[in-house]
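Exercise 7. Predict the joint structure of the components listed below.
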Amino acid sequence: MLDSLTQSLGKALDRFKRAGRLTEADVQEGLREVRRALLEADVHFQVAREFCDQVGKRLLGEERLRGVEGSQQVIHAFHQELVALMGSELPALPKDPRHPMVLLLAGLNGAGKTTTAAKLALWLRQRQNRKVLLAACDLVRPAAVDQLRKLGAELGVEVYAEDPAPDLRPEEVAARALEQARRGRFDAVVVDSAGRQTVDEDLMAEIERVEAAARPDATYLVLDSMTGQDAVESARAFGERLDLYGVILTKIDGDARGGAALSVRRITGRPLCFLGTGERPGDLEEFQAERLASRILDMGDVVGLVEAAQEAVEEERAAEDYMRMMEGRLTMEDLLAQFRMLKKMGSLKKVFGMLPGAGRMSGLLEQVDDRQLARIEAMVLSMTPAERLHPEILNGSRRKRIARGSGVQVSEVNRLLQSFHQLQKQMKSMGRMLKGGKSKKRLLRQLERSGQLPMMPPGGRPRGFRR
Amino acid sequence: MVLSRLRAGLQRTRNRISHALRRLGGDTSLEEALEALEEILYTADVGLLAGEILDELQGEVRRGAIARADELGPWLRERLLRELQDPGPEPLRLQPSGPTVILVVGVNGSGKTTSVARLVAWLQGRGLKVLLGAADTFRAAAVEQLGIWAERLGVDLVTGPHQGDPAAVAHDAAEAALARGADVLVVDTAGRLHTQKNLMEELAKVARVLDRKIPGAPHETLLVLDATTGQNAVQQARRFAEKVPVDGIFLAKLDGTAKGGAVFAVQRELGLPVKFVGLGEGLEDLEVFDPGEFTDALLGPRPAAETA
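Solution:
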């Protein structure tokens, strides 16, 4: 998400950067382009206008700071305003919920409610160690109940569902689900509901009844990130009928420009709470305005990268490998570790997306899927330790041996090596971009000071073969 | 689209624009009037075409071709209409003999399966024998969803196992269509984000398999676009058209508050016309696209505003 917004905003920002001293005319001219970029990214019309006014005021009102480059000041102003636009004090989950905590999901058809319900249930279990019950209250879409049952079974989350019948009402199902949650000592209930158009009076009345029956601690509006200007209309319409707590933005792994993300807070007054970031059940993130603002301005989500990495590998290794790989010193071991990490933290592409400057890079590893992962793992495991650390020694006969050992064709080994080299190159150029001419030491110091990377012993750690 | 809605739309178009102008006070400057129109166009998801049109409009006013505020509305309507292609009463190219194969594609949640059901109902209404292929083997219970529709519609459904190969389903469906002498085979596919390379390749494979079984198939490939989608619609259409020969757009969920203005950019950038629109909840809620009515609705107020 957001790549093209980043690019078009970047172009507009360049205009500011060129001017040594900002005159009012420079600011107006630059802001016109910014507004265009925002509108093209589906930022709501009104929000785009107000945002530009705010940034303009800030730029013209601010005194030129000593020791700071003009362009940095401009980016800072944008960053501040973006955070102000999207940020909120409210936590993603309601404070002091009852027991069991009840969360209700509402939204338009196709926004991704059922998938999100399953993701949220998993998130609550994994991150908060809660015993979660899913309640299937979408009785409109054919087979929606089946879908939730299947998702629940896949994730090992219990589902309360009743077979749809003409006189079965979703608010009754919700009430009975709550009853079961109390009896079964569940800690949380996630209630899925039918998708509806906000102009459909019957269905809007129905969701009100479901809310009344479930008395949720939080009702979330589930919103597709590809939604255009209507995002605001539907958020408003749902907000009029329901006591909305916040918004969950889905499908941000597409290439939508995230205009909805920028607009919703301002127009509805309700914060963004979670982001759906991929197809897997684990692809749900807590929303953080600072982080998204940094990403939009292409300052890179180093925080996000490191956090994700920390969950998957030990802290020390993360810092060390990260630096080394950025220098293009990539080994097969790293590749294997990366691929294994994928299973835990989502696609490498996503990780790339969090890196500064990645907006301008092609996604190399898009084509890697789970089935291929197993084959790659087999190939790397068929290599000797020396081969893994120095893939350049892989000659024809070694390749043949590896192919035999892992049960693949030699051509597949060749392909692996090819993409390995590509990756190595990309890592290297990404490292250069990240540093922007800074020395490695300086970059590290910076990262350390900001608390984004764990401390690393001077000179790094001795490299050895690790299993 | 429904006739009453058309008339109401026309009425509202005039109202909304003149209202916008009135609101600006007696001595409405051109700039303020343009700003009001700009808001109407942008909030309908027309996108950057809006800027272009407003520049033209400004030119018209400057050279005196438009002098009065009430001329703005009709001019805008005509201008927007020039951007849209009329699919005519026969939006689909049906094959003279043998089954016509229609492939339906789109992103997750765009409304494919519901649209497929309506398309089948529409084809049945024209006396055609239809067979359904459920190639969405990915989403949990998607086949069940289509199965329920198939039962209501009384059409045969060909499908495969959950998580099975969709191309195999396409193959079986094509074979069944030939064997059972169906006039039309409609193939539903799994929703996929256009950025997912593997899934997009899978779609190309489905199309290839159909072509192998029935030369020339799919004869029509429809991309289902959600009317609430913003400028991302162009990206979606572009990526899908790269993988399968998309012929036109099925604009779904136009019954909400969304105006669907993103189709202007899709038509302009990729030359893909809208062929059908989906309007309501029922099986019969499908209409052949009518650019005039669409434009009127776009310039009219959002339905929510009526009740407010």
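Discussion. The radius of gyration of chain B is 21 Å.
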